[in-house]
Write a structure and sequence with these properties.
single chain; alpha/beta; 10 helices; 44% helix; globular
């Protein structure tokens, strides 16, 4: 039975500072490392050993995966990185606090950029140091594929070919697959797996370092979806994510 586990990276330094991350390369926080180690123990206790693991080109996802394999190297012996699993690009918001961006652009604009499926934040300028740093840090990504900003929809479109060309063949071959990525890239995968519409995709929430298990049939149609038991702290993270307001006032 094809099985896919999706997991968002652990909590980050910028997240705890209420900063937009996107393609900015914030590391995990102390809390994030602890979350990742706890997730590793949960996966080990559930007897998972993955044939292949995919992660993004961003440090926070790679650090989460490294924390998993530090607990049990056999959890993921084959690791492949793919830039299409990167978080959505937040453009000129990246590295900035939400409060500062509200003061600069207005509350409603920031809400739209955060929660609308199609809204695109202001792009990075060609001479923005953050754009130049991105190009230097990620030289393997073709220039034509390097975004200066993205909507949720654009990030989902970026992930779809990854699902079709890499995950589907692995799953059809009977491989047990782990993906350690980000909210928007996981949202794009969930959209493909669950056939979500725009509204349902925008509303999808996944807590940090909380393994989400999909089982599929031979045609890769969804048969079950569940979170692994990650203890009281993980249950609280999932619960608070689920309770986040979907209305325009939430950022």
């Amino acid at each position: 039975m094809p099985t896919l586990v999706l997991m968002r990276h652990g909590a980050t330094v910028w997240g705890e500072e209420n900063r937009f991350a996107g393609w900015g390369d914030t590391p995990l926080s102390v809390t994030g490392f602890a979350e990742a180690k706890n997730a590793a123990k949960v996966l080990v206790n559930a007897n998972f050993t993955f044939d292949v693991c995919y992660t993004s080109e961003l440090t926070r996802a790679e650090q989460t995966l490294a924390a998993l394999t530090a607990i049990r190297p056999s959890l993921a012996t084959v690791v492949r990185r793919d830039w299409r699993l990167n978080e959505r690009h937040y453009g000129a918001l990246q590295g900035e606090t939400r409060l500062a961006m509200i003061e600069k652009y207005g509350h409603q604009n920031v809400v739209d950029w955060r929660r609308s499926y199609t809204a695109v934040p202001p792009p990075l300028a060609e001479d923005d140091p953050r754009w130049l740093e991105q190009l230097q840090r990620l030289p393997r990504i073709p220039l034509a594929d390097q975004p200066k900003s993205e909507s949720m929809a654009a990030a989902a479109l970026r992930v779809k070919p990854f699902w079709q060309s890499r995950l589907c063949p692995d799953l059809k071959d009977g491989k047990l697959v782990l993906v350690v990525a980000h909210t928007s890239s996981i949202r794009g995968l969930a959209r493909a797996i669950e056939n979500l519409d725009d509204t349902a995709a925008a509303d999808l929430r996944i807590a940090t370092a909380s393994p989400l298990v999909y089982t599929l049939d031979a045609d890769l149609q969804l048969t079950s979806k569940s979170y692994l038991n990650i203890g009281l702290s993980g249950m609280f993270r999932n619960w608070t994510n689920w309770l986040k307001p979907r209305g325009v006032g939430w950022i």
